User: What shape does this take?
Amino acid sequence: MKWEENVRKVVPYTPGEQPESKNVIKLNTNENPYPPAPGVARRIAELEPEKMRLYPAFPEQTELAEVLAAHYGIGTDRLFIGDGSDDVLSLAFMTFFQSDQPVLFPDITYSFYDVWAKLYRVPYETRALDENFRIRTEDYRQPNGGVIFPNPNAPTGILMGVEQVEEIVAANRDVVVIVDEAYIDFGGTSCLPLTWKYDNLLVVQTFSKSRSMAGMRIGFAMGDPKLIKYINDVKYSVNSYTMNYAALQLGVEAVRDRAYFEECCEKIIRTREQAEKELGGLGFTFPKSYGNFIFAGHERMPAKEIFQKLKENDIYVRYWDKERISNYMRITIGTDEQMEALYRALREICG
Ligand SMILES: *Cc1c(COP(=O)(O)O)cnc(C)c1O
Assistant: This one.
């Protein structure tokens, strides 16, 4: 077909499987195993269908913006809210990565980055993690068109200290540096305070993991008001209403209940520590994780085989048949019960 010559062809990002069956123990997409804060259910009962007749409010003028800004001790002029952090990151690629120089990110990282780079025709180069899967800060000292990396990194779970993040930001004052903190609440320290010192740093977070709201699609970015203005200008040139009325209302309750949020994160951290012991005892090795997942390989059995056998047992984890990481699988931290079922299955498979 002739018209196909003029079609934009992309290889899309492939998210983890969303199985139909209810019997599956789903440890493959880093969702939170606990429900959102109880206030969310209460607020659902208060949603007004009448309001759905209208276009939703602009996120930056909502109660959600106010409670989020207050929670992080910033002004609303330093906050951008979007339709999940994938929306925020995609807009950030469009807004901030406009140089002819390549944008830099690690070779093993969130696999959406190269998809956006190709989609928006942003030149990019990857920098290899070291043999222990660590980001080498010195790799980000060459001239570039911007830098992006998750901290903790995905899918390794390895956390970089704030000082090392600062090293990268300070070495790249002429471009925008984006730190994707999707998993920062599981034991890491946010580099948010650096945004006061560095106007070229954008910190991105999400409600999908630590706030148990992947299905509501809420993500946000924090940084200098100038960065926020630029990303807003692009957003309002693409779609003025990315966030729906319900998400804007329900997100508020997830932020307000600080105690519930902290308790959920602590539970996941405790389960993760237990998982380290159990998996270690079964012959797995893994870097110390600061996410709600563990990136583990087995000393004898190929990861692909374990992944497939787990699947036959209705336990889904994530596996990438990709260079350097094909002998690892990423296991999301579930409830203690779900994890017990995982250990039982693994004892059968690799015991
Ligand atoms: C999960 C994840 C995101 C995206 O999350 P949203 O659900 O779109 O908010 C972004 N970056 C990393 C590294 C992630 O793991």
